[in-house]
Amino acid sequence: VQLVESGGGLVQPGGSLRLSCAASGFTVSSYFMIWHRQAPGKVRELVASITFGGKVNYADSVGGRFTISRDNAKNPLYLQMSSLKPEDTAVYYCSRAVCYWGQGTQVTVSS
Fold first, then answer.
1. Is 7:105 a contact under the CB 8 Å cutoff?
2. Which of 9, 32, 43, 47 has the most CB atoms around it within 10 Å of its CB?
3. Could you tell me which residues come within 8 angstroms of residue 62 by beta carbon, excluding any fewer than 6 positions away?
């Protein structure tokens, strides 16, 4: 099992980014998948999740701005982020049910 995040970077407040999580060794659509983030000095928090049945859930802080999705044909997991705020700055990780983790991708929201 391997997870590799990509798509992070520097973006201005109000901007958008799409993170990808490339999965190998298993089928994303068959597992509970989660996006997390960890800001400097803070604990890692759940951002969004999607069940194998497609039910999604979001942290209150990102609801309406972030969208978790997957491509059943190509096997990645995505996190579309819009209306980004400086407080969204963090390292973003994907996990398979908190058992397997990627290395993270840095998102910095700053003018």
1. yes
2. 47
3. 47, 48, 81, 88
Please give the Cα distance from 78 to 7 (Å, whole number): 10
Task: Give the separation between CA 63 and CA 21, rounded to whole angstroms.
Answer: 20
Torsion angles phi and psi, residue 61, rounded to 5:
-70, -15
Residue 45 pLDDT > 80, yes or no?
yes
Residue type present at position 43: V
**How far is Cα 15 from Cα 107, in angstroms, rounded to an integer?**
12
Rounded CA separation 64/43 (Å):
23
Q: In the prediction, which pLDDT does 71 show? A: 85
3-class SS letters over 60-96: CCCCCCEEEEECCCCCEEEEEECCCCHHHCEEEEEEE
Query: What is the rounded distance in angstroms from the CA atom of residue 23 to the CA atom of residue 70?
Result: 11
DSSP code for 87: G
